[in-house]
Amino acid sequence: MAVLIETTLGDLIIDLFVKERPRCSLNFIKLCKKKYYNLNQFHSIEKNYVAQTGDPTGTGRGGESVYSDMYGEQGRYFEREDLPKMRHTRMGIVSFVNNGDNMLGSQFFITLGENLDYLDDQHTIFGQVTEGIETLEKLNEQLTDTNNKPFRDIRISHTIILDDPFEEDTRISYPPRSPSPTYEMLVKTDQIALDEKEDEDEGKTAEEIAEELQQREMAEQAQILEMVGDLRDADEVPPENVLFVCKLNPVTTDEDLEIIFSRFGKINNCEIVRDRRSGDSLQYAFIEFDNAKSCEQAYSKMDNVLIDDRRIHVDFSQSVSQNYKYKPKSQNGEPQKRRQQSPPRRQEVKRSHGRSPSPRRRRSPSPKRDRRNYERKDSDRRRGSPTNHRDGNRNRGHQDSHRDRDRRDNVRNSDKDRERRRHDRSPHRRRDRR
Known about the structure:
Subcellular location: Nucleus
Number of helices: 11
Distance between the termini: 169 Å
Pfam family, one: RRM_1
GO molecular function: peptidyl-prolyl cis-trans isomerase activity; RNA binding
Domain PPIase cyclophilin-type: 6-161
Radius of gyration: 52 Å
Family: Belongs to the cyclophilin-type PPIase family. PPIL4 subfamily.
CATH architecture of the domain at 2-188: Beta Barrel
């Protein structure tokens, strides 16, 4: 009695020990017939040990026997069969996993090594792999993590019953078709997909590998420029019909450059980059052709060519500013050529030492202000200083000395008057008067 199991790594044909393990064989055949094992994952693989599957949840803690369809919840697990005793002596032995208390469900494993005697008294053997040893070797070579979960997503695709010796039970329901893979199986997985390779550089030349590394570095740099704000979009590419020309002679003009490069095709725009203030040439230019083929021809023919006693350098433009540049169109719909900007002329500024000619608001006359001005002029006249502010500033030192001298004289006079009054009040002075 045999069952064909199709996996993502290859096919396996398992012969069942129906006479020695009738209940285990019935459980396995009916589960395969109801497509219970389809899309089940090999969730645990240990090299030279076992490859375990049979859990629809992929965690190693799920699964139930076919007897749950016959007897309900109490038939979720069934007791193991011990006799006759069988041993795990070679690769390809198929056994049901002991879920505890010697109860079996749907999970099973296939041995990948020989002489695994310590599995004999714990798990129940019910079959062996007769064809597909190369598939077992592939399973044994898989890389796994610390929890023995393989990095590659390996699953059971289909199960086909080659011979079923058991009678049909009406209590078991069989689906009309195989289950479809879910969204989590296809997308939300951290494992390597079936069509992916573990070694990405397998079958590639050194030049192809170097080119891929260069493209990755360019993509990383573009993402960094987008993060800092130098690029609007990391996936943005420069135009293919724009040529970059550098090492130009400062005397070369836009018209000369356009005439030289126009033999390769139609030119939409030819512009030498100039300084904004002085208008001097910065010795590099951008030439926009009508198509990319003309740009490629100019690149292959004009590099290191002598123009105005200078060897120019030509390359494809890496600037994306042309994608956002405003180009005014003429009446016939073609973009206008940008005129050459002449250096701005310096404007002559007449400097006047006098007051500003702009009108100022006059204050309305008030009697207090007129009286204050009159008193200021009268005091200046009495001091003998002129009313001109410049002359007044010139004689300010003399005025200060005059003020200090007058202040000292006033202090002396006040002291003399004070002494005279004190002397008049004395009693001797009164007696003399009498």
